Amino acid sequence: MRPRDLVLVGAAALLASVIAIPLLGNPTQASELPRPLPTAPEGETAPTTTEALGGTAQLSAVAFADPVFRKSEQVSTTGWTSGVIRGDIALSTSILDEIQTLQVVIDELRPAGNDGGPRPFRFVQRVDIGVGTPTFTIRNIPFSAYGYVVSAYAAGLNGNQMTVEISAEHPLVEDVQLAIMPGAPFSLLLRDQESNPITATEVRLIPSGSPLGRPQQHKQTDNFGSAVFQNLLAGDYQVAVGPTHAPLMEPQVLTVQSSGMTLRNGVPQPQGTTLVVPAGVPVEIVVTDSYGSPLANAAVRMQATDRKQLTMLDGVTDIRGHLRFARVAQGLWQIDVHKPDHDRRVSQLSLDGKQTPPDQLFQLPRLR
Questions:
Q1: Claim to verify: residue 196 and residue 176 sit in the same structural domain
Q2: Which of 107, 169, 193, 355 has its CA 20 to 30 A from that of 235?
Q3: What integer pLDDT is reported at residue 77 of this predicted model?
Q4: What is the pLDDT of residue 156?
């Protein structure tokens, strides 16, 4: 072979070897499988306390994606002593500017008894907000026969929740779908016992129970007896009607659902309820016999005589001969008092709905 041909052949061989080296790579690295899910160390105990909502969680911040936990990898959970919850939190674009902190709260459904047993597991973890839907992964959740509630929390906004099982049979939950939503609109209608609107009346909604940190709400009813609250956080509220020093009724409890519970065509629908607030003034009935002694178990009926709708109030006197109607609306009323073996007595009463009338006295002589 000529020297020129030898040079060309040698150059071609050298070029082929240079190209082949990066294509082959390291055979050990090329055959690596995705790393398996780490098993909880023997005897490891997950943390059972955290700071209050809004504080710093004791676990590290979660990442936006963790391919280790994808179902397609068929991770073996053999030997696990604690579980993992993974999911995402949908955020409405209209509330992104309102979110200061985003957290996932894990609460065990174990009853909080006084039998000296372990306290229900509770954990709070902060979730980072970035591009795309926030995701979370929470490890070291003790197996429990009671199940867990997983909740999304952002101060001043509504978050939903899901119930999951973390046990030896179900150690890995990967499809938790949570959401943060704006406050829900809620309308409250006040009516008296005759369906008339209660106007220009103060209404206060006082948060009761969880979640904590919800503000009180104050409104005054309009000409239709309506008070509309635009952005209520989900939970129970006590409804106080009237001035603080002179409430018009006993506090009532209402429950507000998150806005995601009342969607119609993708639009949150207002929730609401009607409260009957007995209007009028108290009327005290006093019944005695002909000697002035209290007459118990006397039947008393008050019937309105100035309206088309039949309106009656009934009651019986107590051992002191007294009967009190707490709220009697304005108008003309007929009071009928009777008892077996005694005379019947009837009188008329006019009420203006503002001033409390004097006690209504009735004397029923015994029939001979």
A1: no
A2: 193
A3: 77
A4: 87
